[in-house]
Write a structure and sequence with these properties.
Length: 232
């Protein structure tokens, strides 16, 4: 026997609403797909965030500080002096962080060399403004070599489905070679007497680790046993 929860009228088991007050029958043992129920569903509508709005805010966060430092520098020095470093650094941050968001599916293979090109241009500006002679003999070759290694690794990881251990081994050895190149260029640029010192150790360690990864990739039983040990 059931009763209306609103007016108390006795209800038949087949009735879905009260014949007197039209209140929908609520019975824990009866399930019905008709009607909306006694109480409205407490559903929170999620509003979609506008991608264009996010890009506008991020662009403003980079643009406003650039304008502020530019106006301050012009007011104080009547020329672009220290503000150039700040503005170009903010531009580099914008290229690295915000620029890929403008695209629906940003390709890291394309953006990696763009980022390193922006870094090289910033280093060139610093070199010219400070009257240094270290760009062509140090900054450009080291940053360029690092960009080539990183772009190559990203490209192989994205487009080659297998052989990631080979890629990792080559990347480690490439980083060791960059450390060797870095010390070599530092010594040439600044005329240090010790030609090669610390980079030999990093190069040797990177070659050992890289070869170890390649050996693991070649030897299938070793690779499978390591996968079981480390739950890879």
């Amino acid at each position: 026997m059931a009763y209306c929860i609103k007016c108390g009228v006795e209800l038949a088991s087949s009735e879905k609403s009260c014949p007197l007050c039209k209140t929908v029958v609520c019975h824990p043992d009866i399930t019905s797909g008709d009607g909306e129920g006694l109480y409205p569903k407490n559903e929170i509508k999620k509003e979609k965030v506008s991608k264009l709005g996010i890009l506008f805010v991020l662009s403003a966060l980079f643009l406003i500080p650039s304008l502020v430092v530019f106006l301050c520098d012009m007011k104080i020095n009547s020329a672009i002096t220290w503000s150039g470093y700040v503005m170009l650094s903010l531009a580099l941050g914008y290229i690295v962080v915000v620029l890929p968001i403008w695209f629906k599916k940003p390709n890291p293979v394309i953006f990696a060399p763009i980022d390193f090109a922006a870094i090289i241009l910033l280093l060139l500006y610093i070199n010219l403004k400070t009257g240094g002679h270290w760009f062509m003999t140090l900054a450009f070759p080291v940053a360029g070599a690092f960009g080539i290694v990183v772009t190559t690794v990203i490209t192989l990881v994205k487009y080659v489905r297998r052989g990631h251990l080979y890629i990792a081994g080559g990347a480690v050895m490439g980083l060791g070679a960059i450390s060797f190149l870095c010390e070599l260029m530092i010594n040439i640029t600044f005329g240090f007497e010790k030609f090669i010192f610390w980079s030999i150790y990093s190069l040797a360690a990177s070659i050992i680790i890289g070869m170890f990864l390649i050996i693991i990739a070649i030897c299938r039983p070793l690779r499978e046993s390591l996968e079981k040990i480390f739950f890879i």
